[in-house]
Amino acid sequence: MDNNGLHTEHANYSNLELLARQVVEGFITGLHKSPFHGFSVEFAEHRLYNPGDNIKNIDWKLYARTGKLFSKRYEEETNLRCQFVLDISSSMYFPEGKENKLRFSVQAIASLIYLLRRQRDAFGLSCFSEQLALHTPARSTVQHQKMLFNELEKLLEHPAGALKTQLSTALHQISESIHKRSLVIIFSDLLNTVRDASAQDAFFSALQHLKFNRHEVVVFNVMDRKHEVDFGFDDRPYEFHDLETGERTRVNAGKVRKFYRDQMAGWLHQLELKCAQYRIDLVDADVEKGYYPVLEAYLIKRQRMY
C-alpha cells in the first residue's frame, strides 16, 4: 500500500470506492444539488396540454402570453450519459515518486463516477495510449461501478515499456461509439500536441467531431504546472527523459527556460481559444493542487453556469 492508501500491487476497487464516497459526501454537502444530473434532456417543441399530462411540463410563461396551456416536449428524457476518456500513455506517470498525473486523474474519475451513481446517471470509461485499450458503454449499475473501479486500480502500476499518445484517433472512435448527446470528460496532459502542429490540428478536428455529434465536452488538462509549464528547475545541467519515446536530452535549464515558457504559453493560449470557440470547458488541472480542490472549483463553477 502506498502513502495515499491505495493498493497498487493488487487491484482492489474497495479503496477507490471508499475514497470516492468520502469526497462525494463533501461535494454534495457543499453543492446541495448536482451540476450534472439530467443534462441530456433537450427541449424540442410545444404541444397543446391534454388532461392527464404532467403539469410540471406546462410552460406557464407561454400561458401568460397566450391564455392557452402548452406542454414542453423533450427529445430525450433519460438521465445523463457520461463517458470518461483517460490518457494512459507513459507521460501520465510523471512526476515519478509522488502524486502523478495518472493517479490524479484516476482519483478524480472515481469521485465523479460515485457522484453519478448516486444520481442514477450512466457512466462509461475509455482508456487510450497508442490505441483504445478499454472502452465500456455507459451504465448506471453498482456492478458496472465496481468493474470500472477495478480497472482504474490496475492502471496505477507503471506500464511496461513506453506508451505514446494518439489522442485524436481515440476521440474519433469514441465519438462514433457512444450515445448521442453524451457528456464526454477527457483527462489528458495533451503533451503530444505541444510541438507538433499536425497533432494540434488533429486534436481540434477530433473535438469538432465530438461537438458535431452533439456531445458536451469537458477537457481536464492534467499537468505538473511547476515543471511542465513554468519549467521550475534550477539553473544547472539536466538530462531530461521522454517517458513516451525514451529519448534523452541534456540541457542547461537556465539557458532554455525562456524559450520553453514562451512555447508553452503560446500553446496554452491556442488551446484556450479553440476550446472557447467550440464551447468546450477547459479545466487547468494542476496535480500539485490535488484532485479534490480542482474538482470542487469546477463543479461550483458549473453549477453557477447551468
General description of the model:
The structure is a single chain. With 306 residues, the chain is α/β, with parallel strands linked by helices. Helices cover 42% and strands 20% of the residues. The chain has helices at 13-31, 60-66, 101-118, 142-154, 167-177, 197-212, 225-229, 253-277, 291-305, and strands at 42-48, 70-76, 81-87, 122-128, 132-135, 183-188, 216-223, 237-241, 248-252, 281-286. The strands form three sheets. It has a six-stranded mixed sheet with strand order 5-4-3-6-7-10, sandwiched between helices. A two-stranded antiparallel ribbon has the order 1-2. A two-stranded antiparallel sheet has the order 8-9. Helix 1 packs across helix 4, helix 3 runs antiparallel to helix 4 and helix 5 (167-177) packs parallel to helix 6 (197-212). The longest helix has 25 residues, at 253-277. The model is unreliable at 1-13 (pLDDT under 50).
Main beta sheet: 6 strands, mixed
Beta fraction: 15-25%
Uncertain segments of ≥5 residues (pLDDT<50)? 1-13
CATH architecture of the largest domain: 3-Layer(aba) Sandwich
- Distance from first to last alpha carbon: 40 Å
Major β-sheet strand ordering:
5-4-3-6-7-10
Number of DSSP-assigned strands = 10
Outline the fold blueprint.
Elements: H1 13-31, E1 42-48, H2 60-66, E2 70-76, E3 81-87, H3 101-118, E4 122-128, E5 132-135, H4 142-154, H5 167-177, E6 183-188, H6 197-212, E7 216-223, H7 225-229, E8 237-241, E9 248-252, H8 253-277, E10 281-286, H9 291-305
